[in-house]
Amino acid sequence: MAKKEIKTTTLQPLYNFNDKWEELLENKEFIKVFLSDVLENYIVKQRWYGGKASKLKYIELAEYFRIQKDGEVYYGLILEVNFTEAFYQHYFLPIAFVSDESFAQDDRILPISIQNQKGFIIDAINLEAFRKVVFERILTALPKDKTRVRYHKSVLFKDCLYKSSRYMGMEQSNTSIVYNEKYVLKFFRRIYADRNPDYEMSRFLSDKKDFKNIPAYLGSIQIKDSDNTNITIGLMQAMVENQGDAWEYMLSEFHKVFSNLELKKIDISKLPKTEDFGRLEIRDVPAQIIDWVGLNIFSKIQTLAKRTAEMHIALGSEFEDTAFTPSHFNGDYEVWLKNRLLYQFQNRLNTVENSLYKLDGLALELANEFLEKKNIIRKRFVDFDWTKLKGERIRVHGDYHLGQVLVKDDDFYILDFEGEPESTIRDRKVKQPPLKDIAGLFRSFHYAIYATIFNNIQSYKQEQESLFEAGEILYQYLKSVFLGTYIVKIQEANLNIGYNQERVFLLKYAMLEKAVYELGYELNSRPKWAVIPLKGISNIINN
Predict the structure, then answer these.
(1) Average pLDDT for residues 95-123, to the nearest whole number?
(2) Rounded distance, CA 293 to CA 286, Å?
(3) Domain ranges, residue 171
(4) What is the rounded distance in angstroms from the CA atom of residue 300 to the CA atom of residue 451?
(5) Is the pTM of the predicted complex or chain greater than 0.90?
(6) Is 390:497 a contact under the CB 8 Å cutoff?
(7) From its phi and psi, is residue 244 left (phi > 0), alpha (psi between -120 and 50) or beta?
(8) Between the CA of residue 72 and those of 69, 124, 189, 378, what are the distances in Å?
(9) 296 & 398 share domain
């Protein structure tokens, strides 16, 4: 039957299959029907679908496996989505069959009948019975499970009964379920033929290193694909009660800081500055800055620096598991890094050239500077000489920013170790200098300062340029107070992050990389904000 017929009457069961549900995936006709336009239409509307910028060509079923308990059977599908641009992505979709007409009206994928019972194929995550089965399979997981679908339970996951489950909410790339208001199971939607870094890092830090400031690892679901490769489907962690993420927290705090300019009649031109990438204790911060900013932010920055240092110390303290043992810089790393960054830089150059018409004012001025100084920026990326670097490389967070940190009372908890979304799974596991994470966090500080200005511009009496000037002064002090705590903690633990000149070089290098990476997103999505990465790039190449 033609595909277009499936599209026309999506609420009527067009097909009846005489197979039992437990055997349906062995029916090639069902597979053909299921992989039709109906599935394509469903997938492209999902928040977790990452191929929206490309043209979908067709979908294939790469793998399927059963998720079952006591006669209840669901299917986990690994779908290969092929694009006209000649690449593909893999996605995880668990499915269930429901016959209740009133159920899951927005989440139906395909209307069919099975052995003359009418119903719908739906995403099984919408079904509480499925969520309960998954919870109980992890809870009752056997040590050294050798079956194809492997459930794992940490010793921290104490025996308990299933009580409730609900969607966590607004995630983009994954789907998280809250169980018993105590545990969170993250289903990975975009799938890679390897263990997910979030699973590896969370389990290592929690299970092996007992690092307290991440959600405790409780369990996971892996499958062995037809090539005998481990694929992570789900990650179970303890739920951290919190007051929101550090991004929202800092926006709120920075708004108070900028409001103080008017409230305390502060002359921005007379505010003392500090050296770039200096190291300060709070007692070293000038009284005028403390009067303007207050002590609270600097105190919180110190705590965040301490937790970040402890994370890196844990990641750099392994000498058995080769996936986590520290490494030195070498020629292979240098070649990998330069190839990656030069390709990305060329891509961003093209984007800037094609986007100048979207910009005005300072953003246009900085974009033109970016184009004029493209050879200087390219040379910065090329001037990476591993032989001059003495520090160590370790596994790092890889996508570290304020949105990946939860605020709990006066402390911080670090989340989401999946790595940078644009990177391949292999690139995310490359050992990096720990300062790469710090560079990501510093770029996030910069963003939060400018976002505060943009979001509240009507509330402040000063001109935007003056607010930018005050923001840059604040930014220097935040970095310096962070480094004042972070470097001391790292050196006390004997994690080698290089001498001072090396540290500044690596920070500038990684921050330039991050700002160039950000530039593409801003120009494509919200050109008004392109001034933030452009200012970051300008700061680095002119200092």
Answers:
(1) 83
(2) 11
(3) 130-238
(4) 19
(5) yes
(6) no
(7) left
(8) 5, 12, 23, 58
(9) yes
